[in-house]
Amino acid sequence: MDISQLKKIRALGKLEEMAAVAHALDLYITAGFSVHYKASQALKNPDVESLIYHAVRQVLIELPMMFAVPIIAEGEETYFARLPFIDLRTVISFAQRQNAIVNDGKGRDIELDVTLQQQVNTNVKSDQGIVPVWRLVILYDSTDKQQFTANFMVHHAIADGASFQILHRAFHKALHGLSLHSGMPSQVEYIASSKNDDAIGPPLEAIHSLQIAEEAPQTDAPKYNDWLGNITELPNKTGYATLTLSQSMHLRGSTLSSPRRYTYSNLPPTTESMDINIPVDIRSELPPKAVDGIISNSFDAFRTRVFRSDFYGQYSSELGDIWTAARKVQADTRSYFSRTRAFWRNVSQYCWLEERTQSAGLAQAHDWCAS
């Protein structure tokens, strides 16, 4: 699709612009979120492929951000434009596993890993001009198409990690609603059209323009032999491997520390520490009307440092214990929230702006106060 056919929605915010530029430079291609779906009972209509197409059409109606594409022009303002339509056949693909999913507790799903590694390294650039910036890859179970893994891959400029949960909830709701009715249309309408008056969420700085206080850096901070990663090469190729987190880790709040242990097991033994940025969804602290159920980039991040020595047991020279690191990450997380929640209490009296798009395509600002 030619850029002249697209209608401008609004300028990109800073987080959105950073993701758009990174994608354009092939530094960071795409993000993804996978969920396994299983019908609780036999479907009245066994045509699962048609069901998925119908469900995605409903998702696009509920989440108009899926029609948005970031536009980067050298020397000009970056902005979101709206696709007038999406041909669902170009964004949804289907495949079937060759083997059953093995629940061996080791956390590897090889077929899913292969699919995701290919997807995270596939950008949205096309010889056909401007195309949708998301894909849905359906990976059917080996023996039953009423069980499948849905892999949404979305350009990071339009969605953060929490947005994927919103996306999957909308998809699940659509699947559930359509499955209850035997009267689902037999013909699939593959062309989904957008509406000129469909609004998208505002950029983060439009509803949160103040800086959150950071902890003052230590002037005499010690130096460590950090792992800094490999030299960046273009195009950047991301590896992928699944990791299962046990229920005990969720109960003890240690899901952030376990991947660090596995990372250390693959790093040079001279690596002393990792300086880590942990993203945090801040929707709960933003005006609900601007973020609830809306795909956007609404996150902050804080830094923590994890040492290799944190993963050694008291009487062991092998990497394995995660609880020392878990407690440290937990303490840093609590420190972040105590600092930021005090900030939000201080600014709760301020009014915010919510951007909406009128049918004429012009942005109109509405004043209202955050509760």
From TrEMBL:
Recorded GO MF terms: N-acetyltransferase activity
Pfam families in the record: AATase
InterPro entries xrefs: Alcohol_O-acetyltransferase, Atf2/Sli1-like, CAT-like_dom_sf
Superkingdom: Eukaryota
Name by which UniProt lists this protein: Uncharacterized protein
